[in-house]
Every structure is written in structure tokens, then in C-alpha cells.
Amino acid sequence: MPYPLHRRLRASLASFVACVGLFAAEGEAVATPEFPGIVQDTWKVRLPGMGCTLCHADESTAAPKRVTTKVGLWFYGQGLVALKDTKLKELLAASKSTGQDSDDDGFADYQELVDGTDPNDAQDFERPPPMDVPDGGDAAVPVSPPPVTTPKPHHASAVPRFETGCSVRPQSTGSLVSSLALGIAVAAVTVARRRRRHAPRMALPSRL
Fold it and tell me: Which of 23, 26, 80 is closest to 54 using CA atoms?
């Protein structure tokens, strides 16, 4: 005698619940195609490929799909299930505000996605640029730039020099005027002597 319809429906429902419970216990969940877009729009980042590898092992669209990555297991452990967009947005806000670091490399998941690194790989993070190492040095120490020296301006003497020789000394304004006056006087005397020398001599009157 066949079972009544209600008993068969009850048995089918029990089998379905058992399968769902088995998938949940093993960390499997139905992949939601909208989740990567929500992550990119909420965190203003770009995920590689279709974005599925943030939480899953590959880009396959097969369902149910196992959650294997560190970031995905954190979301799964916080109660995220398929098709729960509101729950995902709440967890994204919590992960960003608390600095959730799923791979324990010292960099938050949100910051790694901003930097373009993998938040599931502890060896992939933004490293600082290397420091210069001096020749023969054992440790990386920052090399300071050489000091900048400003050349001293060359001040020309305000008073012209009229002397020559090894010891040339600048003259003061008073001594310069005296030298000029003396030179003019000597020149005048010289000119007067030359004129007197070349002037015609007048014959003296003879004595009676």
C-alpha cells in the first residue's frame, strides 16, 4: 500500500533539509553572482576576474560552491549566506571599521584590495620601497644627501686701486683727492717749465 501524499511530501522535505544541513556543515554555499559587485561598489575597489575568488576557489558558477578562502570563511563564520545582500553590506562595513585581517599579514582586507594585493595571501601585501645601502655597509640605513653649500658672494672694492705691485692697498677718499691734486700741480709745473724752455729769448740792452 503506497504512503499517503502528505507523508511522501514530509519525507522529501526532510531529505532536502538534511542535504542543506550537510552542505552548511562542510562550509559549502550557493554562490551569489551579485556579491562581487556589492563588494566593489561598497568598498570602491576592483576585484580580479569576476570576483568569485575572493571567497571561492575558482570562478566556476556551479552550485553549491565551497567557501575555501580566508576572507570567505570569515564572512561565512559571521553568518553570511547566499542572496543576503543586506547582511553582506553589514559585514563589509564591520570588516572595514575593525580592520579585519583574514590572512594575518598585518594589512586589513579592505586596505589590501585598495592596494591591489590579495587579502587571502599572507605573502602578498604592499611593501615599502627599499632603502639605499652604502658601499660596504652591513645594514640598510637611510643615506642622507650631501649638505648644500652656498657660495659666498664676491664683493668688489668700492674704491679703485691706482697702485701696482705685490702689495696693493685700497686708498681712502681723502688720500685719493690729495693724490689727484698733487698730480695736477706737478703737471702744471711741468707744462710751465716746458713753455718757458721753448719761449724765444729777448736780447738784453747793451750797457752804455
Answer: 80
